[in-house]
Amino acid sequence: MSDLSCAVSAARFTVVAEAYPGLLSRVLEPLAKRDLIPDRLRAQREGEYLRVEIGLDAMPLEMLHLVAGNLGQIVGVLRVEAMEGRHIRLAA
């Protein structure tokens, strides 16, 4: 019998990148292609840079590093921080 439960955790990503048109849609794409919808999104321009904070209340743990890696590959991204919160185990 297979275990259909998956571990999920709250997650927050902070991205600092050069401000340019289209950056926000590129930052959201790694989430969208994994069918993840942010619970919170905040973007703030800081001079020539844009700081984007994305929060998810429940994200599969195995996707955390994949999304962070994809965010780091976006042209113009200078820094990515990924933080995970409390672990929750859900039965599918």
UniProtKB/TrEMBL annotation:
This is ACT domain-containing protein. It comes from Pseudoroseomonas ludipueritiae.
